[in-house]
Hints:
The complex is a heterodimer of chains A (112) and B (107).
Chain A: E1 5-7, E2 10-13, E3 19-24, E4 31-38, E5 42-50, E6 53-57, E7 64-68, E8 74-78, E9 87-94, E10 102-103, E11 107-111
Parallel strand pairs in A: 2-11
Antiparallel strand pairs in A: 1-3, 3-8, 4-5, 4-9, 5-6, 7-8, 9-10, 9-11
Chain B: E1 4-7, E2 10-14, E3 19-25, E4 31-37, E5 43-49, E6 52-56, E7 59-64, E8 69-74, E9 83-91, E10 94-97, E11 101-106
Parallel strand pairs in B: 2-11
Antiparallel strand pairs in B: 1-3, 3-8, 4-5, 4-9, 6-7, 7-8, 9-10, 9-11
Amino acid sequence: KAGVTQTPRYLIKTRGQQVTLSCSPISGHRSVSWYQQTPGQGLQFLFEYFSETQRNKGNFPGRFSGRQFSNSRSEMNVSTLELGDSALYLCASSLNPRDTQYFGPGTRLTVL
Amino acid sequence: KNEVEQSPQNLTAQEGEFITINCSYSVGISALHWLQQHPGGGIVSLFMLSSGKKKHGRLIATINIQEKHSSLHITASHPRDSAVYICAVWNNNDMRFGAGTRLTVKP
Lengths: 112, 107
């Protein structure tokens, strides 16, 4: 079975731009979660999706949004990028919410 | 004070040593995860626990719900175990993470 894939793997943007990151879960997994990792804050929870519905959202501003499609693929969007949004964005999938998660390789976003 | 505290922050061991990493949390949880992150960023979920003890190969994870404490043990440590180990807890509506323990195992 293919693992969790994330695209793109690396991205450079400038302040004020917006970005969309994509995550394809393991086949059959219906739950997708997103995380942000920075040297200063460590890992932080962004969203959890299940069956196209956002179940939970972490403490992030409204500039961070996401969605899940009927095939369980998920996207997250960050609008009006700030320098502090530079981070590794990780996606993880599981069969159902709160099951063991399988992480993708991450998308490293740099905001200049 | 962080809701999820790990100790130690850094740990250096000689190959073959028995290693213990601790995690204490201050919130109610539905499950606790131990994650392993290698240089380059890839994260692997090692264990998910809600009670008791789990074992996988040389790795053992325990949790004491009453004391709000979990430990990750590595027996017969090996240089390939060198990584950052992260404790994470599901608390109602989100996941909270410890700062991680950086383990270096020297040959």
